[in-house]
Amino acid sequence: MRRTRVHVVSDVHGNAEALARAGDGADVTLCLGDLVLFLDYADHSRGIFPELFGAEAAGRYVALRTERRYVEARAYARELWGDTDRAAAIEAAVRRQYAELFAALPTPTFATYGNVDVPRLWPEYAGEGTTVVDGETVEIGGLTVGFVGGGLRTPMRTPYELDPETFAAKVAALGPVDVLCSHIPPDVPELCYDTVARRFEHGSRALLEAIHTLRPRYALFGHVHQPLARRMRIGATECVNVGHFNATGEPFVLEW
């Protein structure tokens, strides 16, 4: 019996060149969100923010956020924006990135949103080879694969953050799955802690409960760029952070 080869990416953050190759040799590609690059914490010259205000301003903004001085960071951003129509400027930049990134997505791809994505724009850019799924399941190679997009509310105030109840409702809507795909990890400290940013990212208790009750073969996610633990088995489920694709340019590979 022929096996199904699946490539999984997350946290693309503008890496269209590698994204165009992500499906090479795969039957299907899964994209777990965060296509947009607003600000690169490692390279302050890349992203929407430095495009508008320069690398020096981006560096100062990154420093404030890294030190968790969020009130000061927001005040500094307001100063930079001045009278500029912030929403219009950001949307124009996001649209430029989406045009390039969706054109680079392999065919076929099943994609869900990350916390920095703008869901209302996706229908304009997703081509015939890309199926957008959120709070839904699809069948791939005889297995049921469920997708839950977005993140939970944080002081960062990224575009697609949800309250825990709304996020949990999407998880519950899936029903039994063999593979549970999400942008954020389940609420497990080792999977949520970023060793470079030196902070815990928000994980989902609803995802953790689904792993315990539904017992999928795999739980796949991204969001935490440099996790303390990339893989962990919880009961019958192999939990895997599929990697920071922006940095690695390499998809996570599964076969079943």
UniProtKB/TrEMBL annotation:
SUPFAM superfamilies associated with the record: Metallo-dependent phosphatases
Domain (Calcineurin-like phosphoesterase) ranges: 5-227
Single biological process term from Gene Ontology: cell wall modification
Entries under InterPro entries matching the protein: Calcineurin-like_PHP, Metallo-depent_PP-like, UPF0046_metallophosphoest
UniProt-recorded Gene Ontology molecular function terms: hydrolase activity
Protein's UniProt name: Metallophosphoesterase
Organism: Streptomyces chumphonensis
